[in-house]
Amino acid sequence: MRQYLDIKDKHPDAVLFFRLGDFYEMFFEDAVLGARLLDLTLTTRDKGKDDAVPMCGVPHHAARGYIAKLTELGHKVVLCEQVEDPKLAKGLVKREVVRIVTPGIVLDDEVLEPKLPRYVVALVPASRAPAKPAKARITKKPAFAVGTRPGDRPVVEAPPAIDTCGLAYLDATTGELAATELAMSAVVDELVRIAPREVICAPELLAESSRLAPIRARYRCAWNAGVIPDDVGEELAALDVDPELAERPLAGRAAAAVVAYARSTQPTGALPITRLALYAPGDSVVLDEAAIANLELVETLIGRKRQGSLLDVVDDTVTAPGGRLLRRWLLYPLVDVERIRRRQDAVAWLVERPALTDAIRKTLGKIADLERLAGKCTLGVATPRDLGRLRDALLQLPELIELVRSGHDAFSRLNWSGDPMLLDRPADLPALLDLRACADPALPKLARRLSEALVDEVPALLKDGGVIRAGFDATIDDCRRLADGGKDEILAIEEREQKATQIASLKVRYNRVFGYYLEVTKSHLAKVPAHYVRKQTIATGERYVTPELAELERKVLGAEDTLAAREAELFRIEVQRVAQLARQVSAAGAALAVLDACGSLAQVAAQRGYCRPTVDDGLALDLVDGRHPVIEALLPEGTFVPNDCRLDAGPESTEQLVLITGPNMAGKSTYMRQVAQIVLLAQIGSFVPAKAATIGLCDRVFTRVGAADNLSRGDSTFMVEMRETATILAKATRRSLVVLDEVGRGTSTFDGVSIAWAVGEYLHDVLGARTLFATHYHELVALADTRRRVKNVSVAVREHKGEIVFLRRVVPGGASKSYGIDVARLAGLPASVIARSREIMSRLEGGSQLAASPQLSLLAPAPPSPALARLATVDLDRTTPLQALQILDELKALLS
Ligand code: ADP
Ligand code: MG
Fold first, then answer.
1. Which atom of ligand 1 is nearest to the CA of 673?
2. Looking at the predicted structure, is the pLDDT value of residue 306 above 50?
3. pLDDT band per the 50, 70, 90 thresholds, residue 162
4. How many whole angstroms separate alpha carbon 429 and alpha carbon 350?
């Protein structure tokens, strides 16, 4: 108990799994918690005594499931093992903490999702306010100036120091480590994008009153205390670090903190980190929480499912690292034309070589997750099966390199066989697809070595034995011969003794108590020779030992022990060998991930008929026959109606703000989201669902989606809607893309129209950002009368025999009518309510009192005729002629 308490003392914030023989036991409050969360029986030690200790436990072989459950619930689990053989220990068995599993640092393949990174984040806010607040730097947006050169990039101003926060994220399974500095106000957005399972920060900041409290409230995951080291150098030594880190002290401290935290969870293993990447918020398209959610980049708005997200459509990767990379690409779209073109070149090259791409993807699919396998070797948690998969993956590399380099030949052969002209085409392999990292000579050497050392079909676990290949190690071969020979010898002894004693049923058997023995049944006892030593009497006969058997046993068991120890030793050496080359192995894995991600984009482009967009530094956006990538994929082929889109933030433009009117359900939201998704796809280097596309880079994509559309996030209040709108108006630049969907819907019509109108004016007059503005308030079309860069479009509907038909086509000009009542009728509102609505509407429209005193006209309408009201309730289909007469009578009475 003292040993337990000593260890527990060092880990007060974690559940301690304390190894006792075949069980992990929990005690005290850990036991109470564990019993409740894991559904275990709570017992006590020293039952009956006053100070009985609550305890519960789980069998060690089933522990991983329980550990996973606790960490997924946000707890930390400390694994404390017996580190010496209890049989050999003098006194108390030595125990040590071998690993700490936290929500953000999990190494268990059964818990990790292959295509998702597992991040832990460290946050380090600037320590305290300067004595005198620095003079506030007002970054007022310049009024839109006609004549400003198109292509001007906005000046990105560094956030003022006091409001800054260092942020670093780490995936301990791969060693991916990156850090940045950003404004406190942007932290939640960045957390949403990184999606860590755990955030650590200084313990004092976890206090509820701290500046991080609002962030914690909005980003829910496990928030734990970590040490924020002052000496950054020590933690980050030996890593490749950007020299710029010196100017980013908070980023450096956050990186050091997350590394120190991860190290503290692996007392017995090293971390696979080799590099700290620095990044800045301006390196990629700024996407806030709302944009990520509303554009359904990685999960749907409703139900938060991956299926139905943009990622789901474009992710056809065949490897886990490829899947993780593509996800990163989608969440961090590029803002550099050159880099985008480089990706496009790679995708295009593959699109042009469909058969080759197919072959490449087939081979890629056979290659295991090199990044995580290298990580596991470094961490010392690799299993024999892991090493086997790593070997098999490395063995595939030469073929894959050959395949990609032969691109030109393969292309010609597979597609235009026999055409000699084409064989002269230069291969011009795009830079991104160059697998130089996979051609490191150390890799085939490693593969050869592993092939020599390991059997072909490697068993899952070390304890299963049979890991090392025959002929690799003399000791192992000897031991195996002995162990196997032992079995042969047993058979030989059995046969010989059967003959000698004339007892055909004599058997050589083994149990743990006596070792090898001879068993003779009752009826033959008389024939037992004198030199047999009787050991045990059983119901059916007697058991004997002989010196010969004892000797054999010693040899066989000794050989088995030696064999197991030697296999374990050699296995560890091979794991070490990989660990030493982990950097090269994971670099190869990273190169394959790029190939896979590009291959996926190529596959999707080819399969769905996407085009290569022209991406430039301009301020225009021009889509011909654009489609919504997700909805298109859901509908039967060819039924999605494509639409053009033109936006231009240039000075001569007449279409900077496109106002989209049309009834509910017409397709406004779909149209706007499709434009935004196409822009993002283009900026990750993907092809896009359109016939042709020209896209001037966007620095930020903002979305504001009507309250009613995102109830699932619990953000249904008008306040939230306005806050999001405020953010857009504060932060959008001329290079941004703004998508406003039904601004003002969350309040009364007249408030709503007024706010929407003023927001539209501001976007036009002040911000000048390319804007798509959807509203079912058709009153807003008048905005174009006074604002030159406002253009009206509408989603067409047709009335057909009194029914409204949605055409899904975006046409020039504003909608003249809301059709709200028509849609309500389609939705099945009672006929009487529809009739009454039409009546009220015609009165509102007809009377000039709408403008004069709209509230009055609504609240105190001329009393509706009771006769008409009664008439409206009549269902003619269910009215008999007699009833009709009665109704007529009633009506007459009402009129009089
Ligand atoms: P609104 O925002 O105008 O109320 P939505 O954009 O939500 O309308 O569209 C309503 C439905 O119409 C969507 O669920 C979608 O399936 C369908 N739809 C929208 N645009 C198209 C299109 N271009 N082609 C086919 N179906 C579409
Ligand atoms: Mg809508």
1. 6
2. yes
3. low
4. 10
Nearest atom in ligand 1 to the alpha carbon of residue 795 is: 3
Kindly tell me the burial class for residue 603, based on how many C-beta atoms sit within 10 Å of its own C-beta (0-12, 13-18, 19 or more).
buried
Q: Which residue has a Cα nearest atom 17 of ligand 1?
A: 667
Q: How far apart are CA 609 and CA 155, in angstroms?
A: 37
Q: Given a cut of 60, is residue 754 above it in pLDDT?
A: yes
Q: Distance between CA atoms of 654 and 672, rounded to whole angstroms?
A: 18
Please choose from 300, 631, 670, 672 the residue to mutate so as to test ligand 1's pocket, defined by most ligand atoms within 8 A of CB: 670
Share of the chain above pLDDT 90, in %: 59
How many angstroms separate the most distant Cα atoms in the chain? 130
Report the predicted TM-score, pTM, of the whole model to 2 decimal places: 0.84
Ligand 1 contact, 669 CB (< 6 A): yes
SS3 helix, strand, coil % of the chain, rounded to 5?
Answer: 50, 20, 35
Is the pLDDT score of 161 beyond 70? Answer: no
**What distance in Å separates the CA atoms of residue 396 and residue 368, rounded to the nearest whole number?**
10
Task: Tell me the per-residue pLDDT of 506-558, one tens digit each, with 9 for 90 and over.
Answer: 998 888 777 889 999 988 888 888 889 998 898 889 999 998 888 888 888 88
How far apart are the CA of 315 and the centre of ligand 1, in A? 24
Q: Which range among 282-296, 395-409, 546-560, 846-860 shows the weakest confidence by mean pLDDT?
A: 846-860
Q: Is the pLDDT of residue 849 over 50?
A: no
| Confidence band for 744, pLDDT divided at 50, 70 and 90 | confident
Name the residue of 300, 631, 777 to mutate for ligand 1: max ligand atoms within 8 A of Cβ: 631
Which residue is closest in CA terms to ligand 1's atom 13?
A: 667
* DSSP secondary structure, 818-884, as one string: --HHHHHHHTT--HHHHHHHHHHHHHHHH-THHHH-HHHHHHSPPPPPHHHHHHHT--GGG--HHHH
Distance 662 CA to ligand 2 centre (A): 10
Predicted pLDDT of residue 863? 57
Amino acid at 473: D
Higher pLDDT: 607 or 551? It is 607
313 ligand 1 Cβ < 6 A = no
- Indicate if ligand 1 lies below 6 Å from the C-beta of 665: yes
Q: Is the CB–ligand 1 distance for residue 664 below 6 Å?
A: yes
Chain-centroid distance, C-alpha 424: 44
Taken as a whole, the chain contains a residue count of 896
Please give the pLDDT value at position 95: 94
Q: Share the mean pLDDT of the chain.
A: 87
Q: Report the nearest atom of ligand 1 relative to the CA of 663.
A: 3
Q: Are 202 and 124 in contact (CB under 8 A)?
A: yes
- What residues flank ion ligand 2 with Cβ within 5 A? 669
- Single-letter code of the amino acid located at 764: H
The CB of 670 under 6 Å from ligand 1? The reply is: yes
